[in-house]
Amino acid sequence: MAYLKVSGTKVVDQNGKEIVLRGAGLGGWMNMENFITGYPGCEFQIRAALADVVGKEKSEFFFDKFLEYFFTDADAAFFKSLGLNCIRLPFNYRHFEDDMNPRVLKPEGFKHLDRVIDLCAKHGIYTILDLHTAPGGQNTDWHADAGTHIANLWNHKDFQDRVVWLWEELAKHYVGNTWIAGYNPLNEPTDPYHTRVIDLYDRLYGAIRAIDQHHALFLDGNTFASDFSHFGDAHKRWENVAYSIHDYSVFGFPASPEPYKSTETQLRRLRRSYEKKRQWMDERGLCVWNGEWGPVYARKEYDGDRTDAINEERYQVLKDQLVIYNKDRLSWSIWLYKDIGFQGMVFVSRETPYMTLLKDFLAKKHRLAIDPWGADASYVQEFYQPLVDLIKREVKPEHQNLYPAPVWKLTDRIGRLARNILVSEFLVQEWAEHFRGKSEQELDEIARSFSFDNCLHREGLNKILTDNAKLVKDS
Q: Which of 145, 211, 248, 334 is 20 to 30 Å apart from 437, CA to CA?
């Protein structure tokens, strides 16, 4: 079997035959996220808190079992049965090096990544390796696992040097693996100057190509993979490269400005948002990959009788986006495969030990809107609105929209800092205390909650993806 490669606007096999990659991201696994797995704040915070409560040995045992159960042969077989052919594998740099011992490789970091790559290959599924969290934080959000809204990767050369070093180690390890479709060197960068990201891509390209001339690279645009406007002629220095957008639609989230009815105006907005993100590539005849997209879904415990109606709207957004993508024979990776019930193709049953243990805590998290992704802040907005009003009153309008505006509006920024960073910090220890006194056997049972056998299937979503996969294959 030969490597996939980028040829013009397409991904092709060794015979030049087009391969349309259709799949999902394994978010919440080797890069845990609060809304995916039910904790507050950032992964590094809850790992430290759990070690304080149950001890380092038991904490490491729990997280290792979590990684083991989260994706197994049963998951790979199910994924393949849907007609999908590629999984994006997000991972945190901390699996491979420690901040207090930088540039010293932790071989155990490959344990689960190798295992899942091999499982996917066994079932004929390609993988794309995604550095989702980089030293210092490459973006302003929680999933950069930095505990701050400052993307310090761009402010410290040593952080950038460590990213280059890590990709050299990854390239050495995976250079011969042809089931890996490619490398996604940096998830959703937010470089406020728009130039340092290109300089880092130049360094990463050179470092990886010195070791691995074969694997395709998938490079995210700046500002959460939405903006290539400053890339200029950089593509002329790079070969076998696709360019990654993340095409989330506001209509797929609780903040949607109106009910989604597939009106001509709404469809035009969907198309325009997508076309704007890929404009730079289209003008130059370059390959586009949609590395993340997809709605979130209502849950009966929070949305009551409106749940089914809301989700039918969200499915329609999904279908309409797929119509657009199919016209371009776009390769994509929907976000995401597995979670605790908000967005995943499969999700952990509420009857499992993990979900019953944290039932009341999860309800509190939702009420306080401490997760930014798809948050409903209506219950607590009255407490934050005076701060919004103060800033609007005291800060000149031209100074209110700080980068990454316009993706972050003023209210988004205040919510990120006040709810999602500050209030979340106060709940980290409370999350960890749920595990106090648990034996290894009990911790194993809690981690096992994330196994395929303990998950429910989002049938509406999976049917849409399966039907679309057949449509693309037949065409």
A: 145
Mean pLDDT of all residues in 99-121? 97
Q: Which entry of 97, 188, 239, 312 is annotated as an active-site residue?
A: 188
- Quick check: 218 and 58 in contact, CB under 8 A? no
Asked if 128 and 184 touch (Cβ cutoff 8 Å), the reply is yes
Query: Does 169 participate in catalysis according to the annotation?
Result: no
- CA atoms of 157 and 136, how far apart (whole Å): 10
CA distance 272 to 94: 38
Q: Three-class SS of residue 274?
A: helix
Cβ–Cβ < 8 Å for 151, 190: yes
Report whether 310 contacts 289 (CB < 8 A): no
Instruction: Report how far residue 469's alpha carbon sits from residue 475's, in angstroms, rounded to the nearest whole number.
Output: 10
Task: Answer yes or no: are the C-beta atoms of 470 and 83 closer than 8 Å.
Answer: yes
| Average pLDDT score, the chain | 97
- pLDDT one-digit tens code per residue, 368-415: 999 999 999 999 999 999 999 999 999 999 999 999 999 999 999 999
